Amino acid sequence: MLSYPYFDPNMISIGPLQLRWYGMMYVFGVVTGWLLGRYRAKKPWNKMTPARMDDFITWAVVGVVAGGRLGYCLFYNFDYYFYAPHKIFYVWEGGMAFHGGLLGVLLACWLFGRKNGMTFPEVGDFIAPLVPPGLFFGRIGNFINAELWGRHTDGWYGMVFPGAGGMPRHPSQLYEAALEGLLLFIIVWWYSAKPRPKGCVGALFLLGYGVFRFIVEFAREPDAHLGFVALNWMSMGQVLCLPMILFGVGYMVWAYRRESTHPTIPAEYR
């Protein structure tokens, strides 16, 4: 069994000023995505420019925060917030959901594209490789906060998390950081290194995230107030990942078939 390392939740404390590790993980994710986006904007087939990337990052942050919060309220604790809607704004009490944040970013991509003469697939394909680093830092933040831990395990890799009942558990936050963060970044970044049929980079991200999250959910403890929500073994996270997997596969099959008859990739880049 591994020992869970103690983390001071405050990264820096100067008098009453406290800078928490969890909040800084969001900053690290945003800054990493922004820097990678400026680098990616140099590719000749992208319509996104470094200046546009500077503008888009604000849209993305609003989409992540607003969508993540609303997604948690709708998907994971609807009854509570239905009767206390004012508490939706109590973000300091915690509660963010990736799938809600994803919807918020997708809306930001659509609005940004309309404003800047880019199609939704063009914006989505550009942004997709920049998301996994943010997921990586977010899961590291969950680990530091000792939250969203895994199910019980007798394996040597089990950890006893504070407030988790004294039983060794899967460090599922680290599994997600490795799969949804590092591995998904490598796959999507490599795939996007040359032009692909429109929408396919974004579709690959949805497919990859959906598959990795679905797998990790078998080691992650379901939300206590929800438990298993389908077939007595599927968590809410798995249910929300199924549409991502199905859409990712279906769209990529359709896009490659369409590319063979109605090419969208310029001949000089094929």
UniProtKB/TrEMBL annotation:
Pathway annotation from the record: Protein modification; lipoprotein biosynthesis (diacylglyceryl transfer)
Lineage, uppermost ranks: Bacteria, Pseudomonadati, Thermodesulfobacteriota, Desulfovibrionia, Desulfovibrionales
Molecular-function annotations in GO: phosphatidylglycerol-prolipoprotein diacylglyceryl transferase activity
UniProt xrefs under InterPro entries: Lgt
HAMAP family assigned: Lgt (MF_01147)
NCBIfam families for this protein: lgt
Bilayer-spanning residue ranges: 20-36, 56-78, 90-112, 199-216, 228-254
Membrane topology: Multi-pass membrane protein
Role played: Catalyzes the transfer of the diacylglyceryl group from phosphatidylglycerol to the sulfhydryl group of the N-terminal cysteine of a prolipoprotein, the first step in the formation of mature lipoproteins.
Keywords carried by this UniProt record: Cell membrane, Glycosyltransferase, Lipoprotein, Membrane, Transferase, Transmembrane, Transmembrane helix
GO annotation, biological process: lipoprotein biosynthetic process
Record bears the keyword Cell membrane: yes
Protein's UniProt name: Phosphatidylglycerol--prolipoprotein diacylglyceryl transferase
Gene Ontology CC terms: plasma membrane
Binding sites annotated in the UniProt record for a 1,2-diacyl-sn-glycero-3-phospho-(1'-sn-glycerol): R139
Chief localization: membrane
Domain of life: Bacteria
Annotated EC: 2.5.1.145
Location in or out of the cell: Cell membrane
Family statement: Belongs to the Lgt family.
Organism: Pseudodesulfovibrio profundus
